[in-house]
Design a protein that fits this description.
The chain is α/β, with parallel strands linked by helices. Helix 6 links the parallel strand 6 and strand 7. The protein is elongated and about 85 Å long.
């Protein structure tokens, strides 16, 4: 009798565990959209960045397939900000405000585009996913690379010119949050 009772108790426990693992109708899993999926990958790619001012990551996608990735870092073979410090440069913005920019590094967007060129991958018609809106120099590269859509988590403090050029060139820009990415001395 004892073996029978033990086996019954085990079966009851197993059935309870099965019920816990199977979500009820109220607990339906919300699968991420394609934009959410690729933005999350871009955030992870950005963690490889070697300049602490933003640690942006970029993912170039076409037909729901990743073409290339890029993150902020010095040109190949050169020392990184994390190793020897920033190479700061003052920039006078259109509103007259001076902001500081590290010019040692190649931007994430630029690295993703360069990786595509290096490996012979067409970026025509692709979508670019980034942590925050591309700067003006990156925007011009994006336009010339034939990228047609840019999805970014946040805005860039000096992004108005980027938005203007994208509009004129027919590049769609999507901001997930209507917030500006914040980093030191912007």
């Amino acid at each position: 009798m004892e073996d029978f009772e033990i086996k019954n108790a085990i079966r009851k426990l197993e059935k309870k565990e099965e019920k816990k693992e199977t979500p009820s109708k109220e607990e339906k899993y919300n699968r991420p959209s394609w934009d959410e999926y690729f933005l999350e990958i871009a955030r992870m790619v950005g963690r490889r960045g070697t300049c602490g001012r933003g640690r942006n990551g970029a993912v170039l996608v076409k037909d729901k397939r990743i073409l290339t990735t890029g993150y902020v870092g010095s040109p190949a073979g050169l020392n990184h900000c994390d190793e020897i410090g920033h190479l700061m440069h003052d920039v006078i913005n259109t509103d007259g405000k001076i902001s500081k920019h590290c010019i040692r590094t190649v931007h994430a967007e630029q690295n993703a585009i360069v990786q595509a060129a290096l490996h012979g991958i067409s970026t025509k018609g692709a979508t670019l996913y980034v942590k925050f809106e591309p700067c003006f120099a990156c925007a011009k590269m994006i336009i010339n690379a034939g990228i047609k859509r840019v999805v970014c988590q946040k805005k860039y403090h000096a992004g108005q010119l980027t938005r203007n050029f994208f509009e004129d060139a027919g590049v769609e820009i999507v901001h997930v949050e209507d917030k500006v990415e914040d980093y030191p001395d912007q």
